[in-house]
Design brief:
D-amino Acid Aminotransferase, Chain A, domain 1; 8-stranded antiparallel β-sheet; 9-stranded mixed β-sheet; single chain; binds pyridoxal-5'-phosphate
Length: about 425
Amino acid sequence: MERSAVASGFHQNDILYPSRAATSTTRLHSFSSLRNFPSSSLRIRQSPSPVSSNLIISCEISRNRCDAVSSSSTHVTELAEIDWDKIDFGLKPTDYMYAMKCSRDGEFSQGQLQPFGNIEINPSAAVLNYGQALFEGLKAYRKQDGNILLFRPEENAIRMRNGAERMCMPSPTVQQFVEAVTTTVLANQRWIPPPGKGSLYIRPLLMGTGAVLGLAPAPEYTFLIFVSPVGNYFKEGVAPINLIVENEFHRATPGGTGGVKTIGNYAAVLKAQSIAKAKGYSDVLYLDCVHKRYLEEVSSCNIFIVKDNVISTPEIKGTILPGITRKSIIEVARSQGFKVEERNVTVDELVEADEVFCTGTAVVLSPVGSITYKSQRFSYGEDGFGTVSKQLYTSLTSLQMGLSEDNMNWTVQLS
Ligand SMILES: *Cc1c(COP(=O)(O)O)cnc(C)c1O
Protein backbone atom coordinates (compact mmCIF):
# COMPACT_ATOMS: atom_id res chain seq x y z
CA MET A 1 0.00 0.00 0.00
CA GLU A 2 1.23 3.48 -0.85
CA ARG A 3 2.06 5.30 2.28
CA SER A 4 1.11 8.65 0.82
CA ALA A 5 -2.35 7.35 0.05
CA VAL A 6 -2.71 6.25 3.61
CA ALA A 7 -1.46 9.50 4.96
CA SER A 8 -3.61 11.64 2.74
CA GLY A 9 -6.75 9.84 3.78
CA PHE A 10 -6.27 10.38 7.44
CA HIS A 11 -5.22 13.10 9.77
CA GLN A 12 -3.98 13.00 13.27
CA ASN A 13 -7.35 14.14 14.52
CA ASP A 14 -9.26 11.34 12.89
CA ILE A 15 -8.85 9.33 16.01
CA LEU A 16 -9.39 11.10 19.23
CA TYR A 17 -7.14 10.23 22.06
CA PRO A 18 -8.92 8.89 25.07
CA SER A 19 -9.53 10.98 28.07
CA ARG A 20 -8.49 9.37 31.27
CA ALA A 21 -11.04 11.39 33.22
CA ALA A 22 -13.25 9.16 35.32
CA THR A 23 -16.29 10.92 34.03
CA SER A 24 -15.41 10.37 30.40
CA THR A 25 -18.49 9.21 28.63
CA THR A 26 -18.56 7.89 25.13
CA ARG A 27 -21.88 8.10 23.42
CA LEU A 28 -22.59 5.06 21.35
CA HIS A 29 -25.20 7.06 19.55
CA SER A 30 -22.92 9.80 18.48
CA PHE A 31 -20.18 8.79 16.13
CA SER A 32 -20.00 12.09 14.37
CA SER A 33 -16.59 13.10 15.62
CA LEU A 34 -14.99 9.94 14.38
CA ARG A 35 -14.34 8.92 10.82
CA ASN A 36 -15.67 5.58 9.70
CA PHE A 37 -13.11 3.06 8.55
CA PRO A 38 -13.72 1.41 5.24
CA SER A 39 -15.01 -2.03 6.11
CA SER A 40 -12.26 -3.98 4.44
CA SER A 41 -9.25 -1.97 5.42
CA LEU A 42 -7.94 -0.11 8.36
CA ARG A 43 -5.49 2.71 8.30
CA ILE A 44 -4.50 4.29 11.50
CA ARG A 45 -2.14 7.09 12.01
CA GLN A 46 -1.03 7.14 15.57
CA SER A 47 0.20 7.25 18.36
CA PRO A 48 0.86 9.55 21.28
CA SER A 49 4.36 8.27 22.02
CA PRO A 50 7.30 10.10 20.46
CA VAL A 51 9.05 6.93 19.31
CA SER A 52 6.16 5.76 17.23
CA SER A 53 4.61 9.05 16.25
CA ASN A 54 5.27 8.34 12.60
CA LEU A 55 4.01 4.82 12.68
CA ILE A 56 1.41 4.14 10.10
CA ILE A 57 -0.41 0.89 10.28
CA SER A 58 -1.99 -0.29 7.14
CA CYS A 59 -4.05 -3.35 7.58
CA GLU A 60 -5.57 -5.10 4.62
CA ILE A 61 -7.43 -7.93 6.22
CA SER A 62 -6.63 -11.21 4.63
CA ARG A 63 -6.74 -14.73 5.98
CA ASN A 64 -3.36 -14.79 7.59
CA ARG A 65 -1.64 -11.56 7.09
CA CYS A 66 -1.84 -7.91 7.99
CA ASP A 67 1.09 -5.69 7.26
CA ALA A 68 2.33 -2.91 9.39
CA VAL A 69 4.26 -0.33 7.48
CA SER A 70 6.32 2.06 9.41
CA SER A 71 8.08 5.19 8.32
CA SER A 72 11.16 3.80 9.99
CA SER A 73 12.26 0.25 9.34
CA THR A 74 11.26 -0.98 12.75
CA HIS A 75 7.91 -2.43 13.75
CA VAL A 76 8.44 -1.69 17.40
CA THR A 77 5.80 0.44 19.07
CA GLU A 78 6.59 1.75 22.49
CA LEU A 79 4.92 -0.32 25.16
CA ALA A 80 2.52 1.16 27.67
CA GLU A 81 4.20 2.09 30.90
CA ILE A 82 2.94 -0.48 33.35
CA ASP A 83 4.73 -3.11 35.41
CA TRP A 84 4.48 -6.06 33.02
CA ASP A 85 5.66 -8.43 35.73
CA LYS A 86 2.66 -7.67 37.89
CA ILE A 87 -0.35 -8.01 35.60
CA ASP A 88 -3.15 -10.31 36.73
CA PHE A 89 -6.53 -11.10 35.21
CA GLY A 90 -8.06 -7.69 35.91
CA LEU A 91 -9.28 -4.89 33.68
CA LYS A 92 -6.77 -2.25 32.75
CA PRO A 93 -8.17 0.58 30.63
CA THR A 94 -6.54 0.75 27.21
CA ASP A 95 -6.67 3.36 24.44
CA TYR A 96 -9.51 2.32 22.17
CA MET A 97 -12.64 0.27 21.99
CA TYR A 98 -14.63 -0.60 18.92
CA ALA A 99 -18.36 -0.17 18.41
CA MET A 100 -20.66 -1.16 15.60
CA LYS A 101 -24.42 -0.86 15.56
CA CYS A 102 -27.02 -2.60 13.55
CA SER A 103 -30.07 -1.12 12.01
CA ARG A 104 -33.56 -2.58 12.20
CA ASP A 105 -32.89 -4.77 9.18
CA GLY A 106 -30.29 -6.65 11.22
CA GLU A 107 -27.26 -5.51 9.19
CA PHE A 108 -24.23 -4.29 11.09
CA SER A 109 -22.21 -1.52 9.49
CA GLN A 110 -19.92 1.44 10.04
CA GLY A 111 -18.08 0.07 13.01
CA GLN A 112 -15.31 2.22 14.33
CA LEU A 113 -12.74 2.76 16.97
CA GLN A 114 -13.40 5.24 19.70
CA PRO A 115 -11.65 6.15 22.91
CA PHE A 116 -12.10 3.57 25.63
CA GLY A 117 -14.57 4.87 28.16
CA ASN A 118 -18.06 4.71 29.55
CA ILE A 119 -20.94 4.16 27.23
CA GLU A 120 -24.34 5.75 27.35
CA ILE A 121 -27.28 3.40 27.33
CA ASN A 122 -31.04 3.67 27.55
CA PRO A 123 -32.28 2.48 30.99
CA SER A 124 -34.85 0.42 29.14
CA ALA A 125 -32.25 -1.39 27.02
CA ALA A 126 -32.95 -5.11 26.61
CA VAL A 127 -29.47 -5.98 27.89
CA LEU A 128 -30.07 -4.20 31.20
CA ASN A 129 -33.58 -5.44 31.75
CA TYR A 130 -33.65 -8.91 30.25
CA GLY A 131 -30.02 -9.88 29.76
CA GLN A 132 -30.20 -10.05 25.99
CA ALA A 133 -26.48 -10.22 25.31
CA LEU A 134 -23.51 -12.46 24.55
CA PHE A 135 -19.83 -12.14 25.17
CA GLU A 136 -16.75 -13.69 23.66
CA GLY A 137 -13.17 -13.96 24.78
CA LEU A 138 -9.94 -14.39 22.85
CA LYS A 139 -6.32 -13.36 23.19
CA ALA A 140 -3.56 -11.71 21.20
CA TYR A 141 0.06 -12.59 21.90
CA ARG A 142 3.14 -10.59 21.04
CA LYS A 143 5.88 -12.68 19.48
CA GLN A 144 9.59 -12.23 20.06
CA ASP A 145 9.93 -10.78 16.55
CA GLY A 146 7.26 -8.16 17.28
CA ASN A 147 4.50 -9.82 15.31
CA ILE A 148 1.08 -10.21 16.89
CA LEU A 149 -0.88 -13.45 16.86
CA LEU A 150 -4.58 -14.15 17.24
CA PHE A 151 -5.77 -17.68 17.89
CA ARG A 152 -8.66 -18.99 15.77
CA PRO A 153 -10.70 -15.76 15.84
CA GLU A 154 -13.18 -17.13 13.26
CA GLU A 155 -14.19 -19.74 15.83
CA ASN A 156 -15.25 -16.99 18.24
CA ALA A 157 -17.12 -15.28 15.43
CA ILE A 158 -19.00 -18.46 14.57
CA ARG A 159 -19.81 -19.14 18.22
CA MET A 160 -21.16 -15.62 18.60
CA ARG A 161 -23.37 -16.14 15.57
CA ASN A 162 -24.70 -19.39 16.99
CA GLY A 163 -25.34 -17.76 20.35
CA ALA A 164 -27.03 -14.79 18.68
CA GLU A 165 -29.45 -17.14 16.98
CA ARG A 166 -30.36 -18.63 20.38
CA MET A 167 -30.78 -15.20 21.94
CA CYS A 168 -32.84 -13.74 19.06
CA MET A 169 -30.15 -11.24 18.10
CA PRO A 170 -28.63 -10.29 14.76
CA SER A 171 -24.86 -10.68 14.74
CA PRO A 172 -21.85 -9.44 12.78
CA THR A 173 -20.60 -11.67 9.97
CA VAL A 174 -17.48 -13.73 10.59
CA GLN A 175 -15.52 -11.29 8.45
CA GLN A 176 -16.88 -8.25 10.30
CA PHE A 177 -16.06 -9.87 13.63
CA VAL A 178 -12.48 -10.74 12.68
CA GLU A 179 -11.87 -7.34 11.11
CA ALA A 180 -13.20 -5.60 14.20
CA VAL A 181 -10.98 -7.68 16.48
CA THR A 182 -7.97 -6.98 14.29
CA THR A 183 -8.69 -3.26 14.21
CA THR A 184 -9.06 -3.10 17.97
CA VAL A 185 -5.91 -5.07 18.68
CA LEU A 186 -3.77 -3.03 16.29
CA ALA A 187 -5.05 0.23 17.73
CA ASN A 188 -4.16 -0.96 21.24
CA GLN A 189 -0.92 -2.67 20.41
CA ARG A 190 1.12 -0.85 23.02
CA TRP A 191 -0.98 -2.76 25.58
CA ILE A 192 0.01 -6.21 24.35
CA PRO A 193 2.41 -7.58 26.95
CA PRO A 194 5.98 -8.43 25.96
CA PRO A 195 6.53 -12.10 25.07
CA GLY A 196 6.20 -14.35 28.11
CA LYS A 197 4.51 -11.70 30.27
CA GLY A 198 0.91 -12.38 29.31
CA SER A 199 -1.48 -11.50 26.53
CA LEU A 200 -4.04 -8.97 25.42
CA TYR A 201 -7.46 -10.30 26.36
CA ILE A 202 -10.09 -9.30 23.81
CA ARG A 203 -13.69 -9.06 24.94
CA PRO A 204 -16.33 -8.75 22.21
CA LEU A 205 -19.88 -8.04 23.40
CA LEU A 206 -23.12 -8.25 21.48
CA MET A 207 -26.05 -6.67 23.24
CA GLY A 208 -29.59 -5.48 22.82
CA THR A 209 -29.17 -1.75 23.34
CA GLY A 210 -32.56 -0.76 21.98
CA ALA A 211 -35.30 0.10 24.46
CA VAL A 212 -38.00 -2.43 25.34
CA LEU A 213 -40.52 -2.54 28.12
CA GLY A 214 -42.58 -5.64 27.50
CA LEU A 215 -40.45 -8.76 27.05
CA ALA A 216 -39.33 -8.83 23.42
CA PRO A 217 -36.11 -8.77 21.40
CA ALA A 218 -34.52 -5.31 21.31
CA PRO A 219 -35.13 -3.11 18.27
CA GLU A 220 -31.43 -2.20 18.11
CA TYR A 221 -28.09 -3.94 18.85
CA THR A 222 -24.53 -2.93 19.56
CA PHE A 223 -21.39 -4.96 18.96
CA LEU A 224 -18.59 -3.66 21.14
CA ILE A 225 -15.00 -4.78 21.70
CA PHE A 226 -12.67 -3.75 24.48
CA VAL A 227 -9.30 -5.18 25.42
CA SER A 228 -7.11 -5.48 28.48
CA PRO A 229 -3.63 -6.82 29.06
CA VAL A 230 -3.82 -9.90 31.30
CA GLY A 231 -1.59 -12.32 33.14
CA ASN A 232 -2.75 -15.55 34.76
CA TYR A 233 -6.44 -16.18 35.38
CA PHE A 234 -6.14 -18.14 38.60
CA LYS A 235 -4.01 -16.66 41.34
CA GLU A 236 -2.30 -20.06 41.46
CA GLY A 237 -0.75 -19.25 38.04
CA VAL A 238 0.12 -22.54 36.43
CA ALA A 239 0.12 -24.27 39.82
CA PRO A 240 -2.71 -26.79 40.22
CA ILE A 241 -6.14 -25.49 41.22
CA ASN A 242 -8.50 -27.08 43.73
CA LEU A 243 -12.09 -27.63 42.72
CA ILE A 244 -15.21 -28.61 44.61
CA VAL A 245 -18.05 -30.53 43.00
CA GLU A 246 -21.27 -28.54 43.32
CA ASN A 247 -24.22 -30.58 44.49
CA GLU A 248 -26.90 -27.99 44.92
CA PHE A 249 -26.54 -25.31 42.26
CA HIS A 250 -26.53 -25.93 38.52
CA ARG A 251 -25.25 -23.66 35.79
CA ALA A 252 -27.22 -25.14 32.91
CA THR A 253 -30.30 -27.18 32.16
CA PRO A 254 -31.30 -29.17 29.06
CA GLY A 255 -33.07 -26.77 26.74
CA GLY A 256 -31.52 -23.78 28.51
CA THR A 257 -28.68 -21.51 27.42
CA GLY A 258 -25.65 -23.28 28.93
CA GLY A 259 -24.28 -23.97 25.47
CA VAL A 260 -23.97 -20.30 24.50
CA LYS A 261 -21.94 -17.51 26.04
CA THR A 262 -24.85 -15.42 27.18
CA ILE A 263 -24.14 -13.03 30.03
CA GLY A 264 -26.93 -14.36 32.26
CA ASN A 265 -25.15 -17.71 32.68
CA TYR A 266 -22.42 -16.04 34.68
CA ALA A 267 -24.26 -13.98 37.27
CA ALA A 268 -26.08 -17.22 38.03
CA VAL A 269 -22.90 -19.02 39.10
CA LEU A 270 -21.48 -16.29 41.33
CA LYS A 271 -23.22 -17.68 44.40
CA ALA A 272 -21.78 -21.19 44.10
CA GLN A 273 -18.39 -19.75 43.17
CA SER A 274 -18.22 -17.38 46.12
CA ILE A 275 -19.21 -20.09 48.59
CA ALA A 276 -16.47 -22.31 47.15
CA LYS A 277 -13.91 -19.51 47.25
CA ALA A 278 -14.76 -18.72 50.85
CA LYS A 279 -13.89 -22.33 51.65
CA GLY A 280 -10.54 -22.00 49.89
CA TYR A 281 -11.37 -23.65 46.56
CA SER A 282 -10.41 -22.05 43.26
CA ASP A 283 -13.73 -22.81 41.54
CA VAL A 284 -16.73 -25.11 41.23
CA LEU A 285 -17.17 -28.22 39.10
CA TYR A 286 -20.76 -28.65 37.94
CA LEU A 287 -22.67 -31.89 37.50
CA ASP A 288 -25.56 -32.45 35.12
CA CYS A 289 -28.79 -31.30 36.71
CA VAL A 290 -30.83 -34.38 35.80
CA HIS A 291 -28.78 -37.24 37.26
CA LYS A 292 -26.31 -35.20 39.34
CA ARG A 293 -23.81 -37.77 38.17
CA TYR A 294 -22.11 -36.61 34.98
CA LEU A 295 -19.38 -33.98 34.90
CA GLU A 296 -20.24 -30.81 33.00
CA GLU A 297 -17.68 -28.05 33.42
CA VAL A 298 -16.24 -25.37 35.68
CA SER A 299 -17.78 -21.83 35.86
CA SER A 300 -15.79 -20.58 32.89
CA CYS A 301 -13.73 -23.50 31.61
CA ASN A 302 -14.08 -27.05 30.33
CA ILE A 303 -12.83 -30.17 32.11
CA PHE A 304 -10.75 -33.16 31.01
CA ILE A 305 -9.63 -36.30 32.79
CA VAL A 306 -6.71 -38.55 31.86
CA LYS A 307 -6.70 -42.25 32.73
CA ASP A 308 -4.06 -44.66 31.36
CA ASN A 309 -3.15 -42.11 28.68
CA VAL A 310 -6.74 -41.94 27.41
CA ILE A 311 -8.13 -38.41 27.56
CA SER A 312 -11.85 -37.95 28.22
CA THR A 313 -14.05 -34.89 28.32
CA PRO A 314 -17.81 -34.46 28.64
CA GLU A 315 -19.46 -34.37 25.24
CA ILE A 316 -21.17 -31.21 24.00
CA LYS A 317 -24.91 -31.56 24.21
CA GLY A 318 -26.37 -28.18 25.00
CA THR A 319 -25.49 -27.77 28.68
CA ILE A 320 -21.76 -27.32 28.19
CA LEU A 321 -20.07 -24.35 26.57
CA PRO A 322 -18.26 -25.56 23.43
CA GLY A 323 -14.82 -24.18 24.26
CA ILE A 324 -12.42 -23.34 21.47
CA THR A 325 -9.54 -24.32 23.74
CA ARG A 326 -11.35 -27.61 24.45
CA LYS A 327 -11.72 -28.29 20.75
CA SER A 328 -8.10 -27.31 20.09
CA ILE A 329 -6.75 -29.50 22.87
CA ILE A 330 -8.73 -32.45 21.51
CA GLU A 331 -7.24 -31.89 18.05
CA VAL A 332 -3.71 -31.39 19.37
CA ALA A 333 -3.95 -34.51 21.55
CA ARG A 334 -5.25 -36.63 18.66
CA SER A 335 -2.50 -35.32 16.38
CA GLN A 336 -0.01 -36.55 18.97
CA GLY A 337 -1.50 -40.01 18.99
CA PHE A 338 -3.64 -39.78 22.13
CA LYS A 339 -7.03 -41.41 22.22
CA VAL A 340 -9.59 -38.73 23.10
CA GLU A 341 -13.14 -39.59 24.05
CA GLU A 342 -16.04 -37.13 24.12
CA ARG A 343 -18.66 -38.90 26.18
CA ASN A 344 -20.52 -38.93 29.47
CA VAL A 345 -17.90 -38.80 32.21
CA THR A 346 -19.24 -39.81 35.62
CA VAL A 347 -18.24 -38.19 38.88
CA ASP A 348 -17.03 -41.63 40.06
CA GLU A 349 -14.30 -41.56 37.43
CA LEU A 350 -12.64 -38.76 39.40
CA VAL A 351 -11.54 -41.39 41.94
CA GLU A 352 -9.50 -43.30 39.39
CA ALA A 353 -8.22 -40.48 37.18
CA ASP A 354 -4.46 -39.99 36.79
CA GLU A 355 -4.72 -36.35 35.81
CA VAL A 356 -7.43 -33.70 35.58
CA PHE A 357 -7.17 -30.36 33.82
CA CYS A 358 -9.36 -27.43 32.74
CA THR A 359 -9.25 -25.51 29.46
CA GLY A 360 -10.42 -22.08 28.40
CA THR A 361 -9.07 -18.95 26.71
CA ALA A 362 -8.65 -17.21 30.04
CA VAL A 363 -7.12 -20.17 31.93
CA VAL A 364 -5.44 -21.71 28.82
CA LEU A 365 -4.81 -25.14 30.37
CA SER A 366 -4.84 -25.33 34.11
CA PRO A 367 -3.89 -28.48 36.00
CA VAL A 368 -6.32 -29.57 38.71
CA GLY A 369 -4.57 -30.62 41.92
CA SER A 370 -7.61 -31.85 43.78
CA ILE A 371 -11.35 -32.25 43.51
CA THR A 372 -13.57 -32.47 46.57
CA TYR A 373 -16.82 -34.39 46.20
CA LYS A 374 -19.17 -34.92 49.15
CA SER A 375 -16.35 -34.25 51.63
CA GLN A 376 -13.97 -36.65 49.90
CA ARG A 377 -10.86 -35.14 48.39
CA PHE A 378 -9.20 -36.72 45.36
CA SER A 379 -5.70 -35.51 44.52
CA TYR A 380 -3.86 -35.58 41.23
CA GLY A 381 -0.26 -35.26 40.17
CA GLU A 382 2.59 -35.06 42.63
CA ASP A 383 3.03 -31.35 42.91
CA GLY A 384 2.18 -29.74 39.65
CA PHE A 385 1.44 -30.72 36.11
CA GLY A 386 0.77 -34.33 35.16
CA THR A 387 2.79 -35.58 32.21
CA VAL A 388 -0.04 -35.54 29.67
CA SER A 389 -1.42 -32.18 30.84
CA LYS A 390 2.03 -30.64 30.69
CA GLN A 391 2.69 -31.96 27.21
CA LEU A 392 -0.60 -30.60 25.90
CA TYR A 393 -0.13 -27.28 27.69
CA THR A 394 3.29 -26.84 26.12
CA SER A 395 2.09 -27.79 22.64
CA LEU A 396 -0.89 -25.44 22.72
CA THR A 397 0.82 -22.44 24.29
CA SER A 398 3.85 -22.74 21.97
CA LEU A 399 1.49 -22.64 19.05
CA GLN A 400 -0.55 -19.72 20.43
CA MET A 401 2.55 -17.69 21.25
CA GLY A 402 4.25 -18.44 17.95
CA LEU A 403 7.09 -20.42 19.56
CA SER A 404 6.44 -23.44 17.40
CA GLU A 405 5.44 -24.03 13.80
CA ASP A 406 1.69 -23.58 13.39
CA ASN A 407 1.05 -26.77 11.48
CA MET A 408 -2.65 -26.55 12.37
CA ASN A 409 -2.99 -23.18 10.60
CA TRP A 410 -4.80 -21.77 13.62
CA THR A 411 -2.99 -18.51 14.24
CA VAL A 412 -3.63 -15.24 12.45
CA GLN A 413 -0.66 -12.92 12.24
CA LEU A 414 -1.46 -9.22 12.43
CA SER A 415 1.80 -7.44 11.88
C1 LIG B 1 -15.81 -19.30 27.59
C2 LIG B 1 -16.12 -20.55 28.36
C3 LIG B 1 -15.36 -21.72 28.25
C4 LIG B 1 -14.09 -21.80 27.46
O1 LIG B 1 -14.24 -21.52 26.11
P1 LIG B 1 -12.96 -21.10 25.25
O2 LIG B 1 -13.48 -20.91 23.89
O3 LIG B 1 -11.99 -22.23 25.35
O4 LIG B 1 -12.43 -19.87 25.86
C5 LIG B 1 -15.78 -22.84 28.94
N1 LIG B 1 -16.86 -22.80 29.73
C6 LIG B 1 -17.60 -21.70 29.89
C7 LIG B 1 -18.79 -21.74 30.77
C8 LIG B 1 -17.25 -20.54 29.21
O5 LIG B 1 -17.97 -19.43 29.37
